[in-house]
């Protein structure tokens, strides 16, 4: 209400601006403490293979539990950590933790989000190599998810870092495709192992014909380039049918799984999934 009332008034903008800056500073200081005091954790969201109806992969998703009892999502604190550079140590923590957790799930892939700042850090590939060596995690089972921001900001550096990462045998995935300006040109230039179609595109494709055309052609192009394709944020049966018909290889979304603690992953491995088998048409049972 106060927002509306103050709209257009200079004093309001100034106050708002200062408040934001102060808040950013506060979050940043708290994030430093969070690393020291072990307030981060990882959840894992399974990705379901459309053909086998089994878990093919898990994506590590970062959580921050503040001492005041509140949990803050990565959409809020990752951008702040990127600005201050704190994302570098946080990102290394994520990689090491995820590789250690995923040692136990030896038949599936592990996907880890990497921010633009990490990819641009010249030391990153070396640090990645060290983590792989320390943990003994198989690089062929690791996927690093990057966004187009990494590529747009500094394509030359990105290309060099990606080449080094690939030398380890690690897979590179383009995340959130269909939201910004990532184009087919990017796909040709960087040759990702996998493309993730963003939730917003999946959602729009259900009702909007033009969006459906974009999604369909993206899947076709990606597959012709031998990339795997994951549909993100699938929440309904109808969406699952649609992305499967479009040719997606994997489905990630609350229809099947929300992100969960590492300890719960084991029980979904090594067998086809009941709920997936219903929605993906592997069973004659109807919900
Ligand atoms: P993302 O990489 O695109 O991850 C998918 C996000 O969509 C996750 O949100 C996940 O919980 C959510 N999601 C999955 N399925 C559904 C669904 O069916 N419906 C809806 N509404 N949402 C769904 P989360 O965990 O809040 O993460 C948000 C973003 O924060 C991630 O988007 C990623 O960009 C970033 N992030 C998360 N963990 C890390 C990390 O360790 N490092 C970095 N640099 N970024 C991270
Ligand atoms: Mg991701
Ligand atoms: Mg994504
Ligand atoms: Mg996303």
From TrEMBL:
Q: What residue stretches are annotated with the EAL domain?
A: 24-273
* UniProt keyword terms in alphabetical order: Membrane, Transmembrane, Transmembrane helix
Identify the domain of life.
Bacteria
Could you identify this protein by its name? EAL domain-containing protein
Give the lineage: Bacteria, Pseudomonadati, Pseudomonadota, Alphaproteobacteria, Sphingomonadales
- What range of the intact protein is shown? 190 to 476 of 487
């Amino acid at each position: 209400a106060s927002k509306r009332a103050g709209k257009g008034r200079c004093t309001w903008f100034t106050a708002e601006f200062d408040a934001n800056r102060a808040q950013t500073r506060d979050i940043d200081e708290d994030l430093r403490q969070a690393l020291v005091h072990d307030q981060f954790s990882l959840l894992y969201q399974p990705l379901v293979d459309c053909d086998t109806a089994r878990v093919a992969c898990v994506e590590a998703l970062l959580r921050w539990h503040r001492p005041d009892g509140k949990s803050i999502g990565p959409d809020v604190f990752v951008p702040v950590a990127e600005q201050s550079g704190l994302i570098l140590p946080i990102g290394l923590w994520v990689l090491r933790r995820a590789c250690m957790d995923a040692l136990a799930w030896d038949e599936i892939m592990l996907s880890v989000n990497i921010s633009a700042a990490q990819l641009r850090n010249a030391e990153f590939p070396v640090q990645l190599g060290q983590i792989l060596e320390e943990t003994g995690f198989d690089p062929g089972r690791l996927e690093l998810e990057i966004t187009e921001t990494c590529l747009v900001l500094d394509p030359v550096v990105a290309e060099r870092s990606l080449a080094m990462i690939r030398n380890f045998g690690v897979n590179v995935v383009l995340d959130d495709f269909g939201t910004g300006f990532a184009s087919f040109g990017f796909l040709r230039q960087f040759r990702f192992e996998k493309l993730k179609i963003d939730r917003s595109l999946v959602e729009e494709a259900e009702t909007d014909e033009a969006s459906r055309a974009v999604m369909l052609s993206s899947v076709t192009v990606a597959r012709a380039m031998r990339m795997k394709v994951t549909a993100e944020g699938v929440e309904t049966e109808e969406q699952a049918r649609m992305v499967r018909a479009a040719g997606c290889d994997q489905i990630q979304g609350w229809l099947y799984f929300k992100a969960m603690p590492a300890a719960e992953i084991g029980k979904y491995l090594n067998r086809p999934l009941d709920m997936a088998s219903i929605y993906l048409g592997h069973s004659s049972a109807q919900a």
